[in-house]
Amino acid sequence: MAKSKGKMRKEAKADVAPGSDGKCDILSLSNNQLLAFLLKFLVVAAALMIVWFYCAGAFYQSVVFAFSKPVILLMGYTKLQIAALNLGNAYLVNFNLVPLVALAVATPNLILRKRLEMLAIGIPILFLLHVIDILVRFPMYLDHSKFAEMVYVSIGIVGVAVPFIIWFAIAVSFHAGKR
Q1: In this structure, is residue 46 part of a structural domain?
Q2: How many structural domains does the chain have?
Q3: Rg of the chain's alpha carbons, rounded to an integer?
Q4: Which structural domain range is residue 147 located in?
Q5: DSSP strand E in the chain: where?
Q6: Would 8 be classed as within a structural domain?
Q7: Domain for residue 70, yes or no?
Q8: CA–CA distance, 126 with 163 (Å, rounded to integer)
């Protein structure tokens, strides 16, 4: 037997957590607004990933490598060893700037100051992680250091989460303060 629209609506409301009014508690978004945010994030991230892959990533990696190279030399590695590892084309490893920027752009109801704050905090943190990522490769590959390998793997895991942690801390604190 077919259910009436009113009965189906009532059952759908029963599936919503009590007191939530069908909204995402984190950003105070309705289900439709949350879906729109997620779609906007995916579209912006895809567009930024294309830009990253074809131009920005290689430039950014050259900046990271230029910053890292003097430290690598201070660590006692030679220019020949640096050239042998060929890390100049490792820019796809550092793509986690893409979701950070996409989150800053796509998050609804976030004032410009908070978007800029997210980038001002996130970009230097990610840059530092990217430099450390380059630095630990030398003892890991050339000296077979297990500690460097552990740091390298940890940075890989943490690096994926950092943009979302920064976004969560800034966007949620902003929205929590508005309630």
Answers
A1: yes
A2: 1
A3: 22
A4: 24-178
A5: 23-24, 29-30
A6: no
A7: yes
A8: 8
- Distance in angstroms (rounded) separating the CA atoms of residues 107 and 22: 19
**Per-residue pLDDT tens listing for the chain (179 residues):** 555 555 545 554 444 444 445 555 667 778 888 899 999 999 999 999 999 888 888 888 888 888 999 999 999 998 888 888 777 666 566 788 999 999 999 998 888 999 999 999 999 999 999 999 889 989 998 899 999 999 988 988 888 899 999 998 888 776 555 65
Task: Classify residue 17: in a domain, yes or no.
Answer: no
What's the whole-model pTM score?
0.78
Contact 98, 48 (CB under 8 A): yes
The amino acid present at 116, given as its one-letter code, is L
Question: Residues 175, 24: contact at Cβ < 8 Å?
Answer: no
3-state secondary structure at position 26:
coil
How does DSSP assign 1-19, residue by residue? -PPPHHHHHHHHHHTSPTT
Q: Residue 14 is which amino acid?
A: A
